[in-house]
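Supplementary Data S3. Sequence and structure tokens for construct A.
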Amino acid sequence: MKLKILLLLPIGLTIRPLKNLNAQLSDPVISRILTWKKSSEKPKWPEISHLSQHHKTYWSQWDRLTVVDGILYRKWENTTTNDINLQYVLPSADRNRVLLLLHNDQLGGHLGFKRTIARIRHRFYWAGYTGFVERWCKRCTACQKRNQPSHHTRGQMKTYIVGEPLERVSLDILGPVTQTYKGNKYVIVVTDYFTRYAEAYGVPDIEAQTVADKLLEEFICRYGLPLQIHTDQGSQFTSDLFIQLCNKLHIDKTRNSPFHPQSSGLVERLNRTIEDMISKFVPKHQKDWNQYLPYLMMAYRSSVHETLGETPCFMMMGREVRLPIDLIYGGACGI
């Protein structure tokens, strides 16, 4: 059986901790900081006053820099969890390739500056990294083509208070879109309100039987029963079959107001995000978007949600998922 792997690592990135050290030693700025830290004596200002601004930035953070197994890291406090992590001080030669993985790659998802900088911050540090990432995102051709000003009128949003995963999930249909080679032209989107964890499944139709089977076999059998499912008033959700499914599983079923179908802001925002991510990767014929969908949903779930301050994966599973970048450079080290 031949497997088609869409995700490819950039040439030259190998899984070798020793390479991290050698890369730092080859960087003229970081190598000097590494030498200073190994000597355990902070240089005096007259010794560094003639050096570049980057040298001075590292020098000003002397107490936050540490050397572990010969490699330079910076201590960073996660204000959400109060944990202290070690950020690998990334040499200049690797920065473009890291941004390709964490922003441009399918598991990066072109998710914009805020989510990209959060991914960087959980793993890496270098002097001036915020400006570097901001310039990268602004110059990203795929993002600029898609990110046009939006003038859509938003409906009134209602706030739902939830306190744990799978207390309330939303179920929505995205499409119809261009039919794929496999015959799929709709996307079923399931989102957990508490964790913002989401799954998306390509389907050929949105008949009640198709939707019920996908929800039961792909979501419920994997994650368990939600207490409540919220939908719009689509015929597939108001059908006897779907209502019987909820009743049999003792799931409370709610729906949008008929005069305010746009009131579920959570669903609307996620649908726009999915459409944006897909549009930045699919070819012009758009007939293979379903091949990209699993990778892009992983990108969404593994990026920090602005409202939560954590990734949906962490909120749902209590841990972060391992990404290719973590195999290459090693995950964030906790203290």
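Construct B, processed identically:
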Amino acid sequence: MMQTIQHDSTGYKFVSHSFDSIASDWMKLESFAENSHIFSTCELSQVWWRHFGNSSTLYLGSIRNDNRVIGIAPLRVQNGIVEFIGSANICDYLDFIVEPDQLRTFFDILFTQLRNDGKTQLELAPLRPDSAVMRYFTDAAPRHDLAVTTAQEYVTFELQLPDSWDGYLQTLSSKQRHELRRKMRRVSELGDYHYSTLRTADEKAINTFLHLFRISRDEKETFLTPEIETYFRHLIHTAAERGWLELNFMSIGNTTVAATLCFCYKNTTYLYNSGYAPNFKDFSVGLVSKALGIKASIEKKRKVYDFLKGSETYKQHLGGKEIPLYRISINLKP
């Protein structure tokens, strides 16, 4: 149930919400909020909460003036610590969703509300450098006499996409370009290969992707617990319903040798996860399938190919540029 918690002298107020009561405003705001990304959408946040929110208390709110919503605070409280709805192991970036010209007002009221509610510690991660938090939180915090600590925790890689495949190849170093062409040629020597994209949550296709994910590396098999697998399936279905899903398969003859799970959001392709058949590892089918995904994104006129969190070397080999990801810790005690 929606509940108004606190007003300030400017007429703005913090309103607590359920997912149902905030969904419409959240989706509307994220459509034009600066630097918003797929992991802070209402839909994906709700999927995470459904599967992993049992040990937390929901602290989900909006800041508004009359009927105008200027920001969404997708937060939860666990063991007395205020955090984003989400977790770094499956949510690569997290952030507030804020109207671009209202960041100062949003954070002023949020700080006040948190302190009024007796919250003592705020832990926010993973944060991109261009996130609302990194750009404005540290600037606003001193006005509230709060102690702020910033630390880099991870890296991500992304690629600004040119207008053509040839243009992309020219962005690579001569060594990278030579290696990619060599690996694609080796795959073609195995026989005709085919790259296809599915935008519906077909259960057979999902099973194929999860199978390739599981067998591609031991650590992925360990990671894919029954709980995580259930979450992945729900995530895929939700992304398909919103038109964000791209489940990509690379086949040689009648054999599916690699797959990628991608999301398309705001003209960006997010490479969420991938897998390949180990008996084709020597032919670099995993890397080639990702290169074909970059080619498909260029053909679809996307602007960015986001490899997401992690320092795997293939991301650099395919031209990805490293971006640091941060954690901000804020002591909320007066």
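The CA atoms of residues 129 and 325 lie 7 Å apart. The mean pLDDT is 93.
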